[in-house]
Amino acid sequence: MKVLVCGGAGYIGSNMTDMLTKSGHQPVVFDNLSKGHKTAVKNAEFVRGDLADYNLLVETFRKHKIEAVMHFAALIEAGESVELPLKYYHNNFCNTRNLLTAMEDAGVEKFVFSSTAAVYGIPQDIPIVEGTRKLAINPYGESKWAVERMCQFQRATGKLRYAALRYFNAAGAGAGSTLGEDHSPETHLIPLIIQAAMGKRADIKIFGTDYPTDDGTCVRDYIHIQDLCSAHLLALARLDDETELVYNLGNGTGYSVRQVIDVVKAVSGKDFSVVETDRRPGDPPVLTADASKVIGELGWKTQFPQLETIVETAWKWHNENPDGYPD
Ligand code: UFG
Q1: Nearest residue to 247 via CA among 209, 294, 206
Q2: Which of 240, 243, 281, 318 could be stapled to 161 by a disulfide with Cβ–Cβ 3.0 to 4.6 Å?
Q3: Distance between CA atoms of 75 and 90, rounded to whole angstroms?
Q4: 136: Cβ below 6 Å to ligand 1?
Q5: What is the mean pLDDT of each run of 10 residues along the chain (327 residues)?
Q6: What's residue 282's pLDDT?
Q7: 66: CA distance to ligand 1 center in Å?
Q8: Active-site residues: which are they?
Q9: Structural domains of the chain ordered from first start
Q10: Helix (H, G, I), strand (E, B) or coil at 191
Q11: Ligand 1 contact via 287 beta carbon (within 6 Å)
């Protein structure tokens, strides 16, 4: 299938592009390179463009005979979204509205959307099932939920077939550890701890030690990037028969910030300084997934559920690419 991968130069998008190519699809990457890396795009056509550019989107759909869209192009920092809510609504909601408009006008129906566990806010029951109330506690999560709602209504017109995949914490490096995580600035826990282990930063800071968890630090469900991407392939195929798919993507196992630090210390064999600081705004205490719906309905199987394996792949990539991607 010819798939437009919006945000295909980013961490998740580049891994997805690689997997699409290896699975016999023909991805075309559409990315404005505001966050992504051109060098992370391998074996795929590349269009430099912004989702605000309606004309370029329609032209790209027509020129490449695009049959489906996977959409990874979004701002992702919950903390920043609390400071700059309008930036998040603009990028994550308005630009996706533009993308869906261009899809409708070009007659492209299939849409796989990167949603997030952040749509749930602070859920009452853990692990989280898809039907849990959506009460995001930051504009990031709310902007993604607004897109999901827009997809529900657009699907009801008969012009959209969509999958909303709610990611828990994507981590690790894919494609034999050749496609890694390189954000600027980096805000994600595992790459930051690895940088501390590599001596590239003075310490790792724990944001909050007074959460209602066993060791007082936040608990997250880390999912290997390749496992995350494989669910997208299954969802894309299922859109031949279904018009609406909504799934959590996680392993169902939670690790606290302290536990993740211990795993990085064990995998790397390095010791480094750990500093306890205040909570970061917009962080729920515990997010773990009940992914039984996607397992049951799509037959999703994870290949790398162990946090040790996830960290090993990330550690390998960071050591082989100590300065990240060259661009
Ligand atoms: N953390 C620290 N120190 C740091 C960085 C992070 O203690 O230096 C903590 C955070 O407070 C949080 C946990 O580590 O408790 C994980 O933080 P990340 O920033 O790595 O990830 P988030 O859980 O905030 O968010 C990630 C993605 C979102 C996605 C979300 C879904 O960035 O896009 O997972 O759960 F929506």
Answers
A1: 294
A2: 243
A3: 10
A4: no
A5: 98 98 98 97 96 98 98 94 96 98 98 98 96 96 98 98 98 96 96 98 98 98 98 98 98 98 98 97 92 98 98 98 96
A6: 81
A7: 34
A8: 140
A9: 2-171+222-249 (3.40.50.720), 189-221+252-320 (3.90.25.10)
A10: helix
A11: yes
